[in-house]
Design a protein that fits this description.
By secondary structure, the protein is α+β, with helices and mostly antiparallel strands. The protein has one helix and three strands. Strand 2 and strand 3 form a beta hairpin.
């Protein structure tokens, strides 16, 4: 009988140790859940700010693409202006002609004068270059 009592006592001690270990695990899990609840609460508090940041980032991307289009247009316009300047300086053909002054003048037509004739955008431009 002593032997059975001893075995029962050992069994109870073993059961108590398991129960105390389970209690420790339960306490740790409870603390972990509290931490998770705090994390969820924190996330719910900052979610409006995250949404606002996402909106701001999207607006920034839209503005950036608009600025890129403006920059591309400016570059194209600058290239066009350079082509026009080159045409005005080196392009076209030279014409030497006498020009009437439009008044009742005994010396008309006057000249000869040198002009450079350049066609830009479908229009003809006469650039005075001086006396011939």
């Amino acid at each position: 009988m002593k032997e059975v009592g001893k075995k029962i006592k050992e069994f109870c001690d073993w059961l108590n140790s398991i129960l105390s270990e389970a209690d420790k695990l339960y306490s740790q899990e409870k603390e972990s859940l509290k931490g998770s609840q705090k994390a969820l609460q924190f996330l719910s508090e900052i979610s409006p700010y995250i949404r606002e940041l996402e909106t701001l980032i999207q607006d920034f991307k839209t503005m950036l693409s608009g600025y890129q289009r403006i920059h591309e247009r400016a570059v194209k316009e600058e290239e066009r202006a350079k082509k026009i300047q080159w045409r005005l300086k080196y392009g076209g053909c030279t014409v030497i002609k006498f020009v009437p002054c439009g008044k009742n003048c005994r010396g008309c037509p006057h000249g000869p004068y040198r002009y450079r004739v350049v066609k830009i955008g479908g229009k003809q431009h006469w650039i005075y270059e001086g006396k011939a």
